[in-house]
Write the structure tokens for this entry.
Amino acid sequence: MRDGKADEAVIVGHGFGAVLAINVIGRALTRDAALGRHGPRVALLTLGASLPVVGFNPEAKGFRNRLRQLATASDLDWVDVQSRDDILSFIPFDPIAGHNIVLESGRRNPHIVDVQLRSWPFGRAHAQFLTANERPGGSYDYYLSCCGPCDLMTWATKPQDAFVAIAAKSGQP
């Protein structure tokens, strides 16, 4: 990452993969506390996360410590995308408060985004977290979130900015 020319490195965890992504980012920050300051900004995108499956286990202290670490990481943007349309997701669920994690310093992560997915047969909505939207300007688009013209946190907090940037590049109103 130090040698890359990218503006941002987005680590994505989908479903149970969110648990792995959280552990990967946590280990990386433990090894290099300046990660994200000497190269591209580091961002974590969790989609339809199944965090309580692990986090509610009384023996999962290490995992809850990772959540605590990422909640206050100053050089990390974490966006957790949830949808009521996904029966495999836990929603509404705050990954920090929901695990009864008490923070001594300021919390900055995750930023929780609730999106609407199309209705699909049983379980198919969960896969939509990893697809493009068929309609420009739709409520959710995986590629726009992590490969679009804006950084991940801008996409999450000001989605219209992403649509405006795409329209400007394509010459469309």
Notes: The helical segments are 17-31, 51-55, 61-71, 124-127, 142-147, 152-157, 159-170. The chain is about 35% helix and 15% strand. Residues 8-131 form one domain.
